[in-house]
User: Fold these one by one.
Assistant:
Number 1:
Amino acid sequence: MQQSQPISIAGAGPAGLTAAITLARAGHRIIVHERRPDVGMRFCDDYQALENWTSEEDVLDTIRRLGIQPDFYCQPITRLSSYGPRSAAQVTFAEPHAYLIRRGAKPGSLDSALKRQALDLGIDIRFESVLTEAETDIVAVGPRQACAIAVGCVFDTDMNEQAAVLLDNRLAPKGYAYLLVAEGRGTLATVLYDQFSAGKACLERTIDRVQNLVGLTMRNVQHFGGYGTFDLTRPLVSGRRRYVGEAAGLQDNLFGFGIRQAMVSGHLAARSIIEGSQYDRLCRTSLGGQLRASLINRYWYEFMGQPGYDLLVRLSSRARNQRNFWSRIYTKPMLRLLLYPLARLAIRRPR
Ligand SMILES: Cc1cc2nc3c(=O)[nH]c(=O)nc-3n(C[C@H](O)[C@H](O)[C@H](O)COP(=O)(O)OP(=O)(O)OC[C@H]3O[C@@H](n4cnc5c(N)ncnc54)[C@H](O)[C@@H]3O)c2cc1C
């Protein structure tokens, strides 16, 4: 079905491109406006993780179900080292806990794969083109305000492949730090939910700690920074506009994972246009419970602090079924009902 007016999408990130691909498959004409000269330019070929613990379905099957081919660089993460302030654990997973992917404009990244799939469908992507919200049908413009910041670096290395997470307020106030190494490349970053001005000092402390823990070798170091928005109070629809991905604040509140939510919400926004259904209802049914649970998780995480991080490291390492342990954290209906209003009040977001 070809409509006369093309559908306009602002933002060629995972949310905007998934929406565009879904609409193109249904025969709609789309123009995607991207303010930068290419896709993924918010990132710098850093490793990120496509989480695989918040739903029963494997995230790659979810992506296929959305009509996207997972033909980007994608390696299962089946071993994870976790470090609290005074604890350490190595966990092996029977199924991938997450998938290691690359972000940025280079071939093999999630972003360049989505661009290629969109172009193959004949989607018109206009780079260096900025849309105002008033002109837009689907707003997929990424973060708006900093609820958390990331400070990190990418580098060449001869270290072994590994994934590690460090929970310690001295390295990442109310957040976490991570190390991802594969194929001679590494990403090391700290994610701060508080004391943003300490970002550089936290990265230096993280480098020292990782150096002591696993021995760090870094060549051709390139620094990066970024920020993320988590906000469950944002309206998802305003007039004809549908807000998707980070532009709608749809990210895991506990650790800031947002790629899966971006792609799912982009797909749902497209489906609501195709079917004439209510996007906000589709989105809340599909993602609402898990995102509310993630806000409660964040409340607990901040409330328990350093001793809680050690407890989390120890409990997770002792769990018999890792996937159940992590998925249960995101799906506890009674707890969610009781604590959600408190968590909403307690977790203040900068405006
Ligand atoms: C350092 C860092 C590490 C992360 N690690 C992970 C991770 O490991 N796992 C995970 O799941 N998530 C991670 N995230 C979050 C994840 O990257 C985001 O949730 C995801 O990219 C959101 O996708 P999006 O399409 O909503 O927005 P974006 O990916 O931000 O895409 C938005 C696009 O819109 C463009 N744009 C902005 N304004 C306009 C405008 N007015 N007109 C046109 N175009 C515009 C931007 O240039 C951008 O290309 C990380 C974030 C950061 C900063």
Number 2:
Amino acid sequence: MHRMHAYDDDTEELARAIVAYARNRIASPQPLDRVAPAEELERRAGRTIAPEGIGWEEALRIWSEVLAPATISTDHPASVAFVPAAPTKASVLFDLVVGASSTIAAGWIDGAGAIWAENEALRWVAGLAGFPGEAGGVFVSGGSAGNLSALVTARHAAAERRGGRPARWRFAACDTVHSSVVAAARVMDVDVLEVPHDERGRLTGDGLRRTLDADGEGVFAVVASAGATNAGIVDDLAGVADACADRGLWFHVDAAYGGAALLAPSVRPLFDGVERADSFIVDPHKWLFAPYDACALIYRDPALAVAAHRQHASYLETAQAQATLDPADLAYHLTRRARGLPLWFSLATYGTDAYREAIESVLALTRATADEIRRRPELELIMEPDLSVLLFRRTGWTSDDYEGWWRRVLDAQVAFVQPTSWEGERVARLCFVNPNTTIEHVRAILGTMA
Ligand SMILES: Cc1ncc(COP(=O)(O)O)c(C=O)c1O
């Protein structure tokens, strides 16, 4: 047996070291860590890929001592930049099982058990949005892949319906939509029909109707956000659903970040109308407490996705003759990791009530933080939060001040924060998803802006 594939004493020692590392990583608080320049890593790590190998002890040492400390711990409770992560312990541990299992979760023929469990999790997600029982979907790598795959399905369905293509295909969206939606348009070589947003940055049914009435040529879909990333705002989903229904347009909802809040009674009414979408996405690696990478992509009618995405190859014909809905057929991919399994295992372990409580606690922290900002004279809230993102300004600060701020705060290991822009102004942004983030973390961050 080749030594790389033998389970010998050395492998046993490696297994112990890896499990010990992983255990320590999730058992004890980890530092936030920092950003390091490539030259520094080059110098400290040295040459790691060599004909004779450097051995696992040395590779693991380099990872632990040099590379891991130069990699931000996005699950740290004071990591509140971009959209952070907060995977449950069960989900992270089961991810090790997924890695060890060599499951190809492309089709039922070789991934039945794993796909069954993923489908359980997908059914639960679909149910949160009020989708019918025939809905179905697949876990893809992230929101970008989910949005792209949904829009490819939408365009294919529109082409079938109209029996041809217009001069240019377009989909309608506001400029507050996630950048991955615009990237999908580029990949698909379609145009984005920009709909003006309201004062909170929302796509509304009225705004959409006005834009489509003025020029709706070639439009095959509308993309709404349920938790737009920059400000965490939920679009007027019910109004958009009405406008799409009137015009026979595909209604896609990007709930990659915000979809977790479907579980939270305190904000659930904001999502009214999502049940009428043709497709929607939620990223469990954001606020549903799963490890990277996973996006649940759900279709009202999965047959339309199969028509758009199924690949044809002679070596796949037997597999495709089975009467199953195969994950490979529902998005732009073939081979896939069973990346929905950590979410499934964690949901099964803790139960959905624990998820609801954790998400409500994050929403409560967001409201407490808004109060805290209002109490501080040097800070101004830009708008009331819908979900768990806060935008606020530090009066008198320039762009450079915000830039210096995030670096200073990370150097001091107080927090990982990033500024953003709102209506052309540089402002501060906090995004919460971690139930372990406390008001003390928040006060420490706000204290750095005094
Ligand atoms: C609303 C929204 N959509 C899509 C994406 C893209 O998701 P991913 O980074 O998983 O590709 C993000 C990522 O932050 C997002 O917040």
